[in-house]
């Protein structure tokens, strides 16, 4: 029997307006496992109205910042308690290994602890203006209702930084998860209820982006939009939000270079290359999908990577010995498969993989291409699957020119024992993240953002809270006369 979820609006568990539902399919079995409310624009209106009401009336605006922080920390404790259940939900929904979702969900709690600790450390400033008898200071106030839109690859982890920072700032939130993976976010709402958040502070609606996305982003009572997902969708969100001058925080796509120099520790570099592209079946915005290898070690690296790829076990993501799970959605599975023909027509050579896995499930073999030129589509377009393009380079300048020759700029990796080179590349690479002798690390304390078409702004870290705050200047005259600049006293 399928699990039956409801939306969470204004502290109540509700069906979609009109009562329609849709199925969520398990990408491993190909069968429906959950029933999700099919939200409409009326549901958007209800959720935003609940969030707006909670922002301006009732317990939430009356709470001290310390009290808000305590609720966020309590939520973190509940997430740890329920981590196994939430991890199983995400694995059923998107096919990611249970080993990985279990770690991710537990780590998600750290975001709420972190931002819970920040809630009462948001401070304005007193400004020593040059005018006499004036007390001038700034206040930081919530930007309003925050629309959070999350993708299907890591729903709860990606939502945590957005929700945690927005609530620490005193905002209220409406979350719309991907239609492919709504269940875990709807389940998370139960923990907000148990933690004691006032009604309407957190709302979760489910539905299809092409039906309600523009309406949600353009809603007049939404003050800010935080989105993680594809670049084309992010562009559309930015265009719609700009019509009403909404602030946006957009973490978008990437075509990240992972660069191996001849002086690298090859054992670690090979592991970094594998985890950079085959972890999560390549469905990561920071995937190291372009592997740049110095020509002198190119053949050796290719041979070792091919051997490693052949040893990767595909199978049930719930099984502890599975290395790689299925592609999360049917449209994404078909998109990944389409790049096999594209690579072949562009002249790339497939040295391992290049086919789907026989049998049930949306599995794609770990795939490696050589003979890749940086202007080929597989080297320029985000595929979001386990397809690795290997590109040779001659020297430092050549590597840097290839690495930066892309429309994206989200992440990058450098493998070298030369610290002068490590610092040079860390500064010269046009990317929001540079990993040196490591890959794919992240922290709730460290900003995550991109250059170029990889997004606007950055998430995580202490500065992210300020994305959800207005800065207000207050002027107070304590002199006998009221100063009137540029007006002659009568």
Automatic annotation (TrEMBL):
UniProt key word Transport: no
Active site: 251
Molecular function in Gene Ontology: oxidoreductase activity, acting on the aldehyde or oxo group of donors, NAD or NADP as acceptor
Aldehyde dehydrogenase domain span: 13-474
SUPFAM superfamilies xref list: ALDH-like (SSF53720)
Sorted UniProt keywords: Oxidoreductase
PROSITE patterns attached to this UniProt entry: ALDEHYDE_DEHYDR_CYS, ALDEHYDE_DEHYDR_GLU
InterPro entries assigned to the protein according to its UniProt record, in alphabetical order: Ald_DH/histidinol_DH (IPR016161), Ald_DH_C (IPR016163), Ald_DH_CS_CYS (IPR016160), Ald_DH_CS_GLU (IPR029510), Ald_DH_N (IPR016162), Aldehyde_DH_dom (IPR015590)
Domain of life: Bacteria
Coiled-coil intervals, chain numbering: none
Keyword Oxidoreductase on entry: yes
PANTHER family noted in UniProt: ALDEHYDE DEHYDROGENASE-RELATED
Protein family (similarity comment): Belongs to the aldehyde dehydrogenase family.
UniProt-recorded name of the protein: Aldehyde dehydrogenase family protein
Organism name: Maritimibacter harenae
